[in-house]
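As a warm-up, study this chain.
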Amino acid sequence: MKNKVNLKWLIQIVLISFSVSVVFTFASSEILESAGYVLAFIVLAIFISIGILFDIIGVAVTTAVPAPFHSMASHKERGAAEALRLMKNAEKVASICNDVVGDISGIVSGSTSAIIVANLMNDLSTQNILIQLVVSGLVASLTIGGKALGKTFAMNSSTKIVLFVGKIMSITTGLFRKKR
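Now compare it with the structure written out below.
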């Protein structure tokens, strides 16, 4: 049996990727335009953290077991139905969390670090490549190390993480329903 490419999903994921990339890049460039080094490093840390957080969510959704959520949903526990929906769509959720948000966060954190390095080299009137190597090494090691720790955490705490995300979804969808 041949696997068919879901063209609708492919188009959706491309549009989502484009949108997230534009928003992240715009936010980064707007903030960095007039930011000092402290704010620039905070922005960089935020993008690294977003990548790690969404990687954790993507792994948790793919490793969670539905049985406890069926029980929670039958007892009307907030977020359980949403958690089941996440797990039912685990492939798409993981694609969005790990690939779209995670990868774009990595790209934006790389470009953010490049801007910081360029500004540092300009302000210090130097072309010393050591600054670039250190900043790039720190960004890569924090991202990779954070994701490695996050994956272990996600696999060991998948039920709690997926339920937490389900609760957030329940709250946010409830807010939007009330406005209509």
